[in-house]
Amino acid sequence: MEHNHVPLSDWVSLAIGVMGFLTAVMSRKDRLPAWARKWLKRIGSARITDAIERAASIAELSNEARRREAVIYLQKLTIKEIGFPVPLSIANLLVEHVYQQWKRVRR
Fold first, then answer.
1. 62-75: per-residue pLDDT in tens?
2. Nearest 5°: phi and psi at 30?
3. What is the CA radius of gyration of the chain?
4. Residues 33-87: pLDDT tens digits?
5. Which of 25, 46, 64, 97 has the most Cβ atoms closer than 10 angstroms to its Cβ?
6. Rounded distance, CA 23 to CA 29, Å?
7. Which distant-in-sequence residues (6+ apart) come within 8 Å of 9 by Cβ?
8. Alpha carbon 59 to chain centroid, angstroms
9. Structure confidence at residue 27 (pLDDT)
10. Is the whole model's pTM more than 0.85, yes or no?
11. Whose CA is closest to 36, among 79, 82, 86?
């Protein structure tokens, strides 16, 4: 099949569909999965931001070490308040997610 024989309306429909798909993908870019959003709601963005700011205040640490410190602080906080630590993978994801928002605000 040659593209010369495809009606213009089909090309327009295809373009609109592709644009809609790209818009949907871009809108989900900053969203966390549902299970991570539950943890975020339970812990609170303010507490995670506090962990990030505490780690950022330690001047002699590298960026990676600061991120690890924020995760450790977050896990200690959840042990104290919830009774068990947030899993490491989820803590890393939440710290990274909130850090990206925090970094945008600081600019």
1. 888 988 999 999 99
2. -95, 5
3. 21
4. 888 888 889 888 899 999 888 888 888 888 889 889 999 999 999 999 888 888 8
5. 97
6. 10
7. none
8. 25
9. 62
10. no
11. 86
Eight-state DSSP code of residue 29: T
> How many helices and strands (H and E) does the chain possess?
5, 0
The span from the CA of 34 to the CA of 37, in Å, is 5
φ, ψ (nearest 5 deg) of residue 73 = -60, -40
User: Which residue type does 93 have?
Assistant: L
Contacts for 70 with CB less than 8 Å, ≥ 6 apart: 48, 51, 52, 54, 55, 95, 99
Residue with token string 């549902």:
34
Question: What's the rounded Cα separation, in Å, for the pair 97 and 43?
Answer: 13
- Phi/psi for 31 (5° steps) reads -90, 145
